[in-house]
Amino acid sequence: MSQERVFQGVYVALATPMTPSSELNEDALRQLLDFNIDSGVDGFWIAGGGGESVLLDDDENRRIAEISAEQVAGRAKIIMHVGAPTTKRAAAMAEHASNVGVDAICCVPPFFYPQPADAIAEHYRAVSESAGLPFFAYNLPSSTGVEITPDMMALFQERVPNMEGLKHSAFGFHYVREFVRMGLSCFIGFSSLTLPALSMGAVGTVDGPPGIAPEYWVELWQAFRDGDMDRALAAQDKAIDVCNLIWHGKIGGYHPVLKAAIKYRTGIDCGAPRAPGQPLSPEKDALLKKQLSEMGLLKSS
User: Fold this and answer.
1) Is 102 helix (H, G, I), strand (E, B) or coil?
2) Is residue 191 a contact partner of residue 217, using CB atoms and an 8 Å limit?
3) Above pLDDT 70, what percent of the chain?
4) End-to-end distance of the chain based on CA atoms, in angstroms?
5) Is the CB of residue 240 less than 8 Å from the CB of residue 213?
6) Contacts of 300 (CB under 8 A, 6+ apart)
7) Rounded to a whole number, what is the largest CA-CA distance in the chain?
8) For residue 167, how many other CB atoms are within 10 A of its CB?
9) What is the structure's pLDDT at 60?
């Protein structure tokens, strides 16, 4: 098991609820935070990939940080995503997040215009200094075009104040062990791999699917800490089934499936994805409800 860390366990990459007019649904956001805390999660990764981060404007990002800090009120940890293509925007959001009381910040590399490792390190340094909080890099090459390698993380450790670790959402799974050996808090971003990542020293998982059935990952985490591998494997199997609703099922579409599944599981309406994202078709929506029912995850069941 990994050593005790301030940031560890099950962190939900929270969906961002929207109203029918595609505005931030503040009431639903508060309900979603409470549901996950009541389910036993350890923290939140706010306004990240699962939260449609690049589709939010900076004022919305700030408001989400304010609501999250107020609603959570120390009951769980908050890692606030402040990634943006420009250093000025990311640093300003980081400073605001710090001022409203989040516990840490996270940041994807600057995207669209490719940057060398030195430029990314300087970007991260400026953002980190603006917040003065523990800092997590966000390794999401499928969206940013930048894969953060152990060599890059070593550079970031040298340059970035308060570098705590990273969320590793890249396919180089063997890097998990290298990051751990570097003294970093490494969260696995693929929650279907939570158990093998924990066995390699990862401090936990950060992902969107746990927001559908957080209790499965909470059980997995507790079983692993208790040394009960049979129990941990059983929980991981259930967790994989939830992940497959999004990744390997016949429904398709990360945000439409995630938001609809949360609604049918919890009764909290997260709305449709923000444009250009589209909601599920009636046929796929019905299929999702059928699969959730078969899994015992419909709220009515």
Assistant:
1) coil
2) yes
3) 98
4) 35
5) no
6) none
7) 53
8) 29
9) 97
Helical residues (DSSP H) of 140-228, grouped into ranges: 141-144, 150-159, 175-181, 194-199, 214-226
- For residue 265, what are the CA distances in angstroms to 185, 227, 296? 31, 30, 9
What is 9-228's CATH number?
Answer: 3.20.20.70
- Which residues touch 119 (CB under 8 Å, ≥6 apart)? 110
With b meaning 16 or more CB within 10 Å and e meaning fewer, what string describes 86-98? ebebbbbbbbbbb
In whole angstroms, give the CA distance from residue 298 to residue 291: 9
Angle at 296 between CA 236 and CA 249, to 5 degrees: 65
Length of the chain: 301
Q: Is the peptide bond before 276 cis (omega within 30 degrees of 0)?
A: yes
Residue at token pair 């199997």:
237
pLDDT bin (cut points 50, 70, 90) of residue 17 is: very high
Span 225-248, average pLDDT: 96
What one-letter code names the amino acid at 283? E
Q: What is the distance between the alpha carbons of residues 98 and 96, in angstroms, rounded to a whole number?
A: 5
In the chain, domain spans: 9-228
CA angle 272/48/106 to nearest 5° reads 165
- The β-bridge partners of 205 are 10, 188
- pTM confidence score: 0.96
Contact 69, 100 (CB under 8 A): yes
Beta bridge partners of 207: 12
Rounded Cα gap, residues 205 and 197, in angstroms: 8
pLDDT in tens, 173-231: 999 999 999 999 999 999 999 999 999 999 999 999 999 999 999 999 999 999 999 99
